[in-house]
Each structure stands twice: as structure tokens, then as C-alpha cells.
Amino acid sequence: MPNRGPFRRLVILGDSNSYGMCAHEARNEWNQVLANWLRHFQDEPLQIFNRGLPAEVISPRCPGYADSAKPSLLERYQRHCIDLNPDLVVIAQSLNDMRAGMPLQDYLADLETIARDIQAQTGALIVLPGMYHQIHGRGVNDPNLYPTWAKWNDLESAAYNHAIGLLAAKLGALYVDARAVFNGADWVLHSDCCHLNDLGQVLMGNAIFQVIANHCAGVADKTMRVMDEEDVSILNTGGTDTDEEIRELWNAALERFTIEFDD
Question: How far is CA 104 from the centre of its chain?
Fold first, then answer.
């Protein structure tokens, strides 16, 4: 895995948060945050295919299937992912399934089927973000307004999150611990108590990028190239928004820290 990247074709699969719903600015959608960071640091152009479908569930056996947007992920991943020949795929699909009361073992079996098939047919690196927290009983989690989608339970959510991490390890995929990213902060949620707002979307995109960058050396190709070409060192970097006193103090100490590195 350390030799993975740079990436050229990124496919995003999932539901409304993958779609970017409730991000006021398009640049803050987590899929865009992720794609833009990859473009910034790697040496190859990246094409993104956002195939998140709001109100989607993972398969027809999800209890919320009848009220969901169709087709389910299991019914569409061939043409919306594999046929696009990606080398990087993020599958952020769990929230609606859990909110509709899908048994965890059924959800995991469907997710494993999808992920393994994508791996087998494309060789793509799979990234599996876990599930973040919600506010139960309010907004779109109000059982009086949306009975199909109001079965939110924090313990079950934690179980989903943990199980997704275990599945990622089993598959040789990457896992993003979404609960840890947000740490229960309600202010990363939209007022509907379910979707991520602009801040939440940015935090999610950054977290997914961080996990990919920490495991895929190819993401650093541009950084390593520029470091060599521009002779980047302690002598010619830093000091943004500093003042003359700090510059003089550093210059006075500089000779004690100047090191010659062997190639």
C-alpha cells in the first residue's frame, strides 16, 4: 500500500453526504475537499466522479428500501463505479441503512460484496469512512415526521462504525473513523440534525485525505520533486507573518543549525 498513488480517477459512492448535501459552498463538499488536496500534492491530474445518491440505501434488503431513492448501491455500483475504471474509490454508505434499522450483519455482507467486486475488477484502493454522530428525535431524525429514517441509536451507530473499521482491515482497505473526526460536536451538523454543514464537510474531506496521504507515498510525489528542484531547506522557508526582530534572532542562531545533507 505505501507505493499507491498518485491517483487519476476517483469515484465517490454513498448517500446525501457523499453527494455534498447541505454544504453551502461547493468547494466545501467533502468530495471536493478531498479531490482538491490530492490535486494539490500529487504530480498527476485527478478526475473525480461524484456518484453519491441522496436517500440511497445499500441494497434491497434494507428495511428503508421501499422509501429510498433507487437504485440501491448494490444495484448500481457496476455502472456507477466499476465501469468508470477508478484507481481510488471512497464508499461512504451506512447512515441511511442504520437509520432505517438494517441489521449490522446484513449491511456488512452487502458492503463487503461491493468492495470486493470493485477491488477484483479495478484494483482500486478502497476507502471506507465510518459513521458519524446524529441528533436523535429532531429534524430528519424525528420519528413523527420520518418514521422510516428515525431509528437512530448511538450504540448501534458506534457498532456500525467499529465494524466498518474491522471490514476495512479485512479487505486491505483504508478506514476513516468518522466518530473520532467530529468527537460528538453538534455544530458540524446542519440544522436538520443529520447532514454535515460546511464545517463538517470540510473536516470529513480533510480526514479522508489525511488517511490516504498517510498510507500512499505517491501522494507526496510533487512535494518530493519540488523539494529537490527548489532546494527547499531551513534556509529559505518559513517566516510568514513574522517581524524583523524574529528574523534577526533566527539569523543570529542560524549557523548553529545549518547542516549539509548527503544525497
Answer: 21
List Cβ neighbours of 14 (8 Å cut-off, separation of 6 or more): 52, 53, 56, 73, 90, 91, 92, 93
Asked if the model's pLDDT at residue 149 lies above 70, the reply is yes
163 close to 247: Cβ distance less than 8 angstroms: no
Overall fold of domain 9-221? Rossmann fold (3.40.50)
Let me know: does 150 contact 193? Beta carbons within 8 Å: no
Number of helical H runs and strand E runs in the chain: 10, 5
pLDDT, tens only, 123-135? 999 999 999 988 8
Side-chain half-sphere CA neighbours of 182 within 13 A = 24
The three grid cell numbers given for residue 116, joined into one nine-digit string = 470486493
Hunting for cell 447512515 — which residue is that?
95
Evaluate whether 18 touches 90 at the Cβ level (below 8 Å). Answer: yes
